[in-house]
Automatic annotation (TrEMBL):
Keyword Disulfide bond listed: yes
Gene Ontology terms for molecular function: hydrolase activity, hydrolyzing O-glycosyl compounds
Principal location class: other
Membership in a protein family: Belongs to the glycosyl hydrolase 27 family.
InterPro entries associated with the record: Aldolase_TIM, GH, Glyco_hydro_27, Glyco_hydro_27/36_CS, Glyco_hydro_b, Melibiase/NAGA_C
GO biological process, one term: carbohydrate metabolic process
Entries under Gene3D superfamilies matching the protein: Aldolase class I, Golgi alpha-mannosidase II
The entry's keywords: Disulfide bond, Glycoprotein, Glycosidase, Hydrolase, Lipid metabolism, Lysosome, Signal
Protein's recorded name: Alpha-galactosidase
Protein source organism: Oryzias latipes
Amino acid sequence: MHFSLLLFACALCGSTLALNNGLMRTPPMGWLAWERFRCDIDCQNDPKNCISENLFMDMADRLSEDGWRELGYVYVNIDDCWSSMERDENGRLQPDPKRFPGGIRKLARYMHDRGLKLGIYGDMGTHTCGGYPGTTLDKIEIDAQTIADWEVDMFKFDGCYSNATEQEQGYPLMSKALNATGRPIGYSCSWPAYRGGLPPKVNYTQLGEICNLWRNYDDIQDSWDSVLNIIDWFFDNQDALQPAAGPGRWNDPDMLIIGDFGLSLDQSRSQMALWSIMAAPLFMSNDLRTISSGARSILQNKIAIGINQDAMGMPGRRILKEKSGIEVFWRPLSNNASALVFFSRRTDMPYRYTSSLRQLNFTTGSYKIIDVFTGKMASLKDSTDFVVSVNPTGVVMWYVSAPARTNLNHLRRGQEAHRVAEENFIPYVFL
Ligand code: GLA
């Protein structure tokens, strides 16, 4: 008894308590209100789009009825502007009574009844970025408990209106407070985004111990410029960022804006492909009630999702930047497979890019290729030249299975991995 008490006490006493909540072993997937619906609180004039329980119930209905949930899109996340301007008489956060008349717990139950999860938003600071009540250091425990009492499953902790010292205390404290509630709550930290996103100001080892995911960089907007800017920042800084992520701890380049107004279908495929290479959380911020079939089929692409959700959880990297404006990205996957993305920064016409797997550092052997967005399959030897035609601002994305024939000692292992890849991955793809 004493011994176990001691163990328990010591589990809590470390200064960097590991976030041992067992959650998000693969990047979380779902829907998040912010980019598409912002702080629209005008339910009088815009009842369908305002931040209210109806919006989240509508999205939950779509997720559970239109095939999203089965693909892994299970989180329905509230962002800013949900709360009342005042805390209640016990000092607890409370939702705006007009827009969330049923309360947050009822909304959480609505999600759980449909096999979904509810996320909510708070801010380490005096106010949220939208000016609603924030969580100062003295409010961390009560807010964590309130969220747990409501049966919420994920918490995004923004960082407006606090300084570096407060953040350094507040983000780890919130992690402890959430853990102490005993409810598994996925923890999304905006901390690094407020500190420039890079070492030495940001300590990614510590973040991996206290948060499940973290925003590293600027907010996404509904434009290709914004997506490209995010892609460039993450891959220009891949040496610092790529090793930070893994099962239970993810870099978050922000929401998917596929299905909104700013991206062409090619650009939408680029976002889906590169978010999958990065092992990024896949939170759509769009209107699932009116989404086009083109956008839907990109977001519901099982091979891209399979790559994003790979069990090994190792993010990929940019491996080539060609003068032609073609860039090549590579992500290692379980079962000795990998993913390749050929991305074009060009703005003229489809570019015919020639390479070979050998040139891209693949070992000797014959590989099976699946084109992620066309579903076409082919066999390809490492030494054979291939040509991919990459549209302007678009991608060609490949799933590359383990080599059927590898060298010498690797022969056995290679074949086994290939068999596993064929048995496990490919049937999933063509379900
Ligand atoms: C910040 C965050 C966004 C969003 C808004 C809400 O800008 O980075 O993701 O949560 O605040 O006000």
